[in-house]
Design a protein that fits this description.
Helices cover 15% and strands 20% of the residues. It is α+β, with helices and mostly antiparallel strands. It has one domain: Ubiquitin-like (UB roll), CATH 3.10.20.30. Bound molecules: FE2/S2 (inorganic) cluster. The site of FE2/S2 (inorganic) cluster has 13 residues, from loops.
Length: 137
Amino acid sequence: MSEANTKNIPPGKLVRVTFLPEGRTVEFEFGALPYEHHGKPMSILDVAQNFGVFLDHACGGVCACTTCHVWAKEGEGLSEAGDDELDRLDMAADQQLNSRLGCQAVITKPGNYVVEIPKWNRNYVSEGRPLALTEQK
Ligand code: FES
């Protein structure tokens, strides 16, 4: 998915997602993003996968880990967290009121969204993995 073809997006259909702390912003037409088979369609993880933004997802996006934990900073169109997600988030490091699982938080309408990927989480520490917030292509 290219970030260059946003000129032809009809008015009112633009979705803009900024991933912190990188500050990388991606744009696409609402409803036109191909499903990348990770997490729920149009989830933050799905968007990240489409644009090559690294967001860990150890369980493959089925709400069975917390490696896709993000803080939702902006965006009124994110789906409500379900009980499964809330139960799983209780196990996440650095849980905040705006904590979401990237694989479960779905963009439901056009608009601006900002999410922050925590610099570390419990799985990185327990698995001894290096901090990896760089893009994977
Ligand atoms: S990828 Fe495992 S809960 Fe989201």
